[in-house]
Write a structure and sequence with these properties.
Elements lengths: L1 H25 L10 H11 L5 H10 L5 E6 L9 H14 L3 E6 L13 H8 L3 E5 L10 H15 L1 E4 L3 E3 L6 H4 L2 E5 L6 E5 L29 E3 L15 H11 L18 E6 L7 H12 L5 E6 L5 H6 L5 E5 L5 E2 L2 E2 L3 H15 L2 E4 L3 E3 L5 H4 L3 E5 L4 H4 L6 E8 L4 H8 L11 H13 L5 E2 L5 E4 L2 E3 L22 H4 L2 E5 L19 H12 L7
Parallel strand pairs: 1-2, 1-4, 2-3, 9-10, 9-14, 10-11, 16-18, 19-21
Antiparallel strand pairs: 4-7, 5-8, 6-7, 12-13, 14-17, 15-21, 16-17, 19-20
Organism: Paralvinella palmiformis
Pfam families: Gly_transf_sug
Protein name: Alpha 1,4-glycosyltransferase domain-containing protein
Length: 539
């Protein structure tokens, strides 16, 4: 009996090992397990030239140069790892399928306060073969460009493989070079732009004598005859989404895995629900501005329903609204945590709720200090998600090219943008006022360009009584506003809504404060909404 049990155990172990071996030897290439559907097709086409296991074996055996890549990062040259550096490394990943990428550095790239330039960290989290080697005072980093290039040449000769400059984006596959060349030099010896390739242990002759540089992105419109292109200008994702050029197609392919223009698409078969949402935490008083806001969505936007999530307000203005059958309070207990992180303050609790509301219900979300002066067209409601650029000073933007204003949001429930926006709250920064509400949705837009339409006229931020249309030149500067420019010649048609952040203009503080004859645009807005609502001024 004991022998039978032992034999049975041995048989089971052998069977499990055989099954495990079969799984390991028949699994798909590693890259296909985590990349997008488009990239799966691309990787399959790359691998399809090897029809059987023998071809794969022959390909590996024919390689003269190791399939590994070196980046040589000097803090003296770069403080941040920017989007163009991300394009370079991603083009290497897509075209070379390297066994390893060595990122040699003297100081690791710094992240800004709002963590915009974290592109290297994003790549490291996505791909397991990026290896860091940090050394203080790395050779060549504090000397001349010739010193740095000499250090790179020595390092590459020891290891073998490729060196790719941090601003060099590969434009065609270098894989064939691994088979039929021992060495290749495509580099500018003055700038270091381009790439080097060599067999391990093979000395590299003077690169300056054999220098053949790849073109810069602004110099050429056809990269088919080159292996690479150098991105010498600072670059942001927004510049390439709709750039209809050879470089635009190359950059989109490197960043997103596709060459087509990346524009949000309208779907008129399903429009955003014609409902409006507010968040009100605590049962405080409805002020005159919020009263005007509700009147504006009822009588200008003409929504079917207004939902107030949280608790009912009180006061004389609420008493006028409370009996309206189109206004309904949806009780909701104040949230204090999101993804197990403590949330402090009503404003940040509202940040969490507004995204949850748009994910579940869709429609129009607006803050209580927003008034609409123009109906929402079907052309806007046909998009999955719509937001606008925010006016905030350069201190709050830092390295970001723009941030979004979540005080007005329009869209369809369950849309990709709202779902991904909500996911960003897994890292909630309660100490940074605009982090989750303004900065993170912009990062979602960068990651999924088609998921959100940015309409700069959806709202205008009027900070402390000065309006800053984001379509106007210099809008990021606080000193540029509607009082010293012609940025709002026709406020009724220039924008859909106006958002009054900071202190509220006197004309919007109390019904009688404008005395029915104010000449400011804010008094005109109040009178316009009251007129559209069929109400008489109470002086």
């Amino acid at each position: 009996m004991t022998k039978l049990i032992l034999l049975t155990i041995v048989f089971v172990i052998v069977a499990l090992n055989a099954a495990l071996f079969a799984v390991l030897t028949t699994r798909k290439p590693f890259v296909s397990m985590f990349v997008s559907q488009f990239e799966r097709k691309f990787d399959a086409s790359f691998i399809s030239k090897f029809p059987n296991d023998q071809s794969v074996q022959n390909d590996i055996e024919r390689r003269v140069v190791p399939n590994q890549v070196i980046y040589y990062w000097c803090a003296k040259s770069w403080e941040r790892f920017e989007f163009r550096h991300y394009l370079s490394m991603y083009s290497v990943i897509r075209l070379l399928h390297p066994d390893v990428i060595y990122f040699l550095y003297d100081e690791y790239p710094k992240a800004d306060k709002f963590e915009y330039n974290v592109w290297l960290d994003d790549l490291r989290q996505a791909y397991p073969f990026i290896y860091l080697e940090g050394t203080n005072g790395r050779r060549g980093c504090n000397g001349t460009s010739e010193d740095k290039l000499a250090a790179i040449v020595d390092e590459l000769s020891k290891r073998g493989g490729f060196y790719v400059n941090e601003v060099t984006v590969l434009s065609s596959s270098l894989a064939p070079l691994l088979e039929d060349k021992q060495q290749m030099i495509e580099i500018n010896c003055t700038t270091g732009h381009g790439f080097l390739m060599t067999q391990k242990g093979l000395a590299i002759p003077s690169v300056c004598k054999q220098s053949v540089s790849c073109p810069n992105s602004v110099q050429s419109s056809n990269y088919s005859s080159f292996y690479c292109v150098n991105v010498i200008e600072r670059l942001y994702p927004k510049y390439i989404w709709e750039l209809d050029s050879e470089f635009g197609r190359l950059a989109r392919w490197a960043a997103y895995g596709e060459r087509e223009l990346m524009r949000p698409e309208a779907n008129y078969q399903e429009l955003a629900p014609n409902i409006a949402h507010y968040v009100w935490i605590g049962n405080g008083t409805m002020d005159y501005l919020w009263y005007l806001s509700v009147l504006s969505v009822l009588n200008v936007v003409k929504v079917d329903k207004v939902f107030i999530h949280g608790e009912a307000p009180h006061g004389k203005y609420w008493d006028r609204i409370a009996e309206n059958e189109k206004v309904e309070v949806i009780y909701r207990y104040p949230v204090t945590y999101v993804f197990d992180q403590l949330i402090v303050g009503n404003s940040h609790q509202s940040d969490v709720w507004r995204v949850d509301i748009m994910t579940k219900y869709g429609g129009l979300y607006l803050d209580v200090d927003v008034i609409f002066v123009k109906p929402l067209s079907d052309d806007l409601r046909a998009y999955d998600a719509v937001m606008s650029i925010d006016f905030i000073g350069s201190y709050w933007i830092e390295d970001y090219p723009n941030v979004l204003q979540s005080g007005v949001m329009l869209g369809k429930r369950g849309s990709q943008f709202w779902v991904e926006f909500q996911k960003t709250m897994r890292k909630y920064k309660d100490d940074l006022w605009t982090w989750n509400a303004c900065h993170m949705p912009y990062r979602v837009k960068e990651k999924y360009p088609r998921s959100l339409l940015i309409d700069k006229r959806l709202q205008v931020n009027c900070f402390c009584g000065k309006c800053h249309p984001t379509w106007w030149p210099g809008y990021k500067k606080r000193k540029v506003h509607h009082l010293n420019s012609n940025s709002l010649p026709n406020w009724r048609n220039d924008a859909y809504s106006y958002h009054f952040t900071g202190s509220v203009p006197i004309d919007l503080q109390e019904e009688g404060s404008m005395a029915g004859n104010s000449t400011s645009i804010f008094g005109e807005m109040a009178r316009y909404i009251m007129d559209k609502s069929g109400l008489i001024y109470q002086d």
